[in-house]
Write a structure and sequence with these properties.
Rossmann fold, ATP hydrolysis activity, P-loop_NTPase, ABC_transpr_LolD-like, ATP binding, 10 strands, ABC_transporter-like_ATP-bd, about 240 residues, alpha/beta, 7 helices, binds adenosine-5'-triphosphate
């Protein structure tokens, strides 16, 4: 087991609504197994992104716990230094949008986390080039700035950057939403080939094919609650 999520609740106090509360997650419990690919599905507003943001601690948890076993810590309550250390070394997160860095080339955007964790710059750039070409990014764009890229091109850079360090726990929030079917297939092939059993993935996907091609198990959310947790083979027919 890598994660034990216990009765996780996230409420948002809406100051603009006179302090009314919006519930993002309502008592969600789930165990995440070492090395598995857990897909998180559910209708819009069901709490998928909130779950990932609580795991990454972008959102402060209202109640409940998130036991991260490799470091023997509760991510919901541990101090910021511990979170920053884990983010730098073993927990990766990517949303569907690339955080652009002005005047940094696509290759360097992808290589940056590797260089920051100590890989020599040329090896990091080589891995970055490999990942970008596996995702079908046209060669001439490798040294260009992602600010001018199309949505799908940017998302390829984003996904490559998330995969590059092969984190122990990778949180993917709709990393392929802007990709065409052909590029989505490249993304599936790359994720399967590049991530070994030492990486556990919790990934939000709207696309059924992505879930079926990648997931071991599927967590179904609805109105912030856990509706189901099932092996992917039994997932067919469930509305995502
Ligand atoms: N920062 C926030 N402030 C206030 N409410 C929020 C915030 N983030 C999420 N929510 C609310 O929490 C609920 C769950 O949102 P969340 O983004 O987790 O859903 P989702 O399943 O990821 O949706 P989608 O598929 O549309 O991205 C929604 O009602 C949303 O309005």
């Amino acid at each position: 087991m890598i994660l034990t999520v216990d009765t996780l609740t996230k409420r948002f106090e809406m100051h603009v609504l006179d302090g009314a509360t919006v519930v993002g997650l309502d008592g969600v419990s789930v165990n995440v197994r070492d090395g598995e690919f857990l897909a998180v599905v559910g209708p819009s507003g069901s709490g998928k992104s909130s779950l990932l943001k609580c795991l990454y601690q972008t959102y402060e948890v209202s109640s409940g716990s998130i036991r991260y076993h490799p470091a023997d810590v509760d991510l919901a309550t541990c101090d910021d230094r511990t979170i920053m250390r884990l983010r730098g070394s073993e927990i990766g997160y990517t949303s569907q949008f690339l955080d652009e860095i002005p005047r940094v080339s696509a290759v360097d955007v992808v290589a940056r986390p590797l260089v920051e964790s100590g890989m020599p710059a040329e090896s990091a750039r080589e891995r970055a080039r490999d990942l970008l070409s596996e995702l079908g990014l046209p060669g001439p764009l490798f040294e260009a700035y992602p600010a001018t890229f199309s949505g799908g091109e940017r998302q390829r850079v984003n996904l490559a950057q998330a995969l590059a360090p092969r984190p122990r726990l990778l949180l993917l929030d709709e990393p392929t939403s802007a990709l065409d079917p052909e590029t989505r297939r490249l993304a599936v092939d790359l994720i399967r080939a590049d991530l070994g059993p030492e990486t556990t993935v919790v990934g939000v996907f709207h696309n059924h094919e992505m879930v079926e091609a990648l997931a071991d198990r599927v967590l179904v959310l609805g109105d912030g609650r856990r509706r189901d947790l099932l092996p992917v083979a039994e997932f067919e027919g469930v509305v995502a």
